[in-house]
Amino acid sequence: MPPTDSSAPPAPIGRRERKKAATRRSISDAAMRLFLERGYDDVGIREIADAADVSTTTLFKHFPVKEALVFDEDADQEALLLAAVRERPPGRSIPAALRDHALRHRMAAVDGDAGFTAFFELVHTTPALRDYVQAMWLRHTGALARVIAEESGLPADDPACTALAHFALEAPRTARGHEDPRQAVVRAFDLLESGWGTLVPSR
């Protein structure tokens, strides 16, 4: 969530918080290096802890489940998702803003981004990670539905807002296996745009 006063300086980060963040990053980096070298299923928690020079107890304090080692920015992703709706340009519909977010943040590997290609290959060839990442995105359904309702002037419990949030978060998965995944995502959002326009034509 962005701060209400953008001019206020960020709160200073204490030494303890910096140390915790550095430990977390060290564990995450060690895990990803091992996963990419050998595959997710062939790497154990103790090996990751040893590579990061921490105990398994410390590792689990930062990452309660093994899958979380691969997805280390869940809160940041939710903030970006909600901002895509709240900060969309004037005249941009909510489905269009969510489509742009999906193409930018969830389809990077399709564009040949070298930093993402190996990561997405790891995720999409590992069933446990595929299931976890989809569940991770769907955890944001409630928060996204509330923002959609706020921005649309609809009741907070309007089922249309929940439906749009759910299907917008599901849409990138529909692209899996398509010859042109980006176009598949666009097509899915075209359907959402059409349906949403009948409910909220002026927004």
What does this protein structure show overall?
The chain has 203 residues and is an all-alpha fold. The protein has 2 domains: 15-63, Homeodomain-like (Arc Repressor Mutant, subunit A), CATH 1.10.10.60; 74-199, Tetracycline Repressor, domain 2 (Orthogonal Bundle). The radius of gyration is 19 Å and the shape is globular. Helix 5 (94-105) runs antiparallel to helix 10, helix 8 crosses helix 9 and helix 9 (159-174) runs antiparallel to helix 10 (181-199). The chain has 10 helices and no strands. 66% of the residues lie in helices and 0% in strands. The longest helix has 24 residues, at 15-38.
Question: Quick recap of the structure?
Answer:
The protein has 203 residues and is mainly α. The protein has helices at residues 15-38, 45-52, 56-62, 74-86, 94-105, 114-124, 127-138, 141-152, 159-174, 181-199.
Show the helix and strand layout.
Elements lengths: L14 H24 L6 H8 L3 H7 L11 H13 L7 H12 L8 H11 L2 H12 L2 H12 L6 H16 L6 H19 L4
Helix pairs in contact: 1-2, 4-5, 4-8, 5-9, 5-10, 8-9, 9-10
Please tag this protein with its features.
203 residues; mainly alpha; Arc Repressor Mutant, subunit A; Tetracycline Repressor, domain 2; 2 domains; 10 helices; 66% helix; globular
SS class: mainly alpha
Beta-strand content bin: under 5%
The main β sheet shows up as: none
The rough form would be described as: globular
CATH fold-type name of the largest domain = Tetracycline Repressor, domain 2
Strand runs, count? 0
Query: What percent of the residues sit in helical stretches (DSSP H or I)?
Result: 55-70%
CATH hierarchy class name of the largest domain: Mainly Alpha
End-to-end separation: 23 Å
Mean residue pLDDT? 85
Assembly type = single chain
> At the fourth CATH level, what is the homologous superfamily of the largest domain?
Tetracycline Repressor, domain 2
Query: Helix count?
Result: 10
Q: Give the low-pLDDT segments.
A: 1-11
